[in-house]
Design brief:
41% of the residues lie in helices and 15% in strands. It has helices at residues 10-24, 39-51, 64-67, 71-82, 103-109, 124-134, 148-155; strands at 31-33, 56-59, 88-93, 115-120, 139-141, 159-160, 167-168. The protein has a five-stranded parallel beta sheet, covered by helices on one side. Strand 3 (88-93), helix 5 and strand 4 (115-120) form a beta-alpha-beta unit.
Length: 171
């Protein structure tokens, strides 16, 4: 995942994912961050990733100064993008975008057919409530490194998205 995606052009982002696909040569799955304030641009990035054989895309909530934090707008934003790709969609949720989504809203988003994961960088009680709401329908990941062992032991978490590379735990 390219963390500072807003610092590069869409063409540079396409080049980065192309290089990554070439380097890993199918050895590990790639998660391509297709986040963009414009759903149209996010869809174009997702289509490019799909053409390269990338199995997953990662979406960051849109910037509130452009779209606000209205739950209906957020559902429409994610649904619009997800409907235009067959890739597995991972929702990246962090208060760093300027607002937070409730566990209930995230659970609603998890009902979008190809949403397969939520990377939920929130307090543990928020993440646990989300886990309770979605059950096993999607993978809920707590990316907070200090809670990694707790999440593995108490919640069976087998992956952590941290920094630029997810760390996989083999059971």
């Amino acid at each position: 995942r390219l963390q500072q995606y807003w610092l590069v052009t869409s063409e540079q982002r396409r080049r980065v994912v192309g290089l990554a696909v070439g380097e890993v040569d199918g050895a590990v799955p790639i998660i391509n961050r297709c986040a963009h304030t414009s759903p149209r641009q996010a869809i174009e990035l997702a289509r490019h990733a799909a053409e390269l054989g990338v199995p997953f895309l990662d979406l960051v909530p849109p910037d509130p100064q452009f779209v606000g934090a209205d739950p209906h707008v957020l559902v429409r934003y994610y649904t619009t993008i997800a409907e235009q790709t067959e890739l597995g969609v991972i929702l990246f949720h962090t208060p760093g975008v300027g607002y937070t989504m409730s566990p209930e809203l995230l659970a609603e988003l998890a009902e979008i057919p190809n949403v397969c994961g939520i990377d939920n960088g929130m307090p543990l009680d928020h993440t646990n409530k989300l886990r309770d709401l979605v059950g096993d329908s999607v993978l809920v990941v707590d990316p907070i490194e200090d809670r990694c062992l707790l999440n593995m032991l108490e919640h069976g978490q087998q992956v952590i998205f941290t920094g630029d590379s997810p760390l996989l735990h083999s059971a």
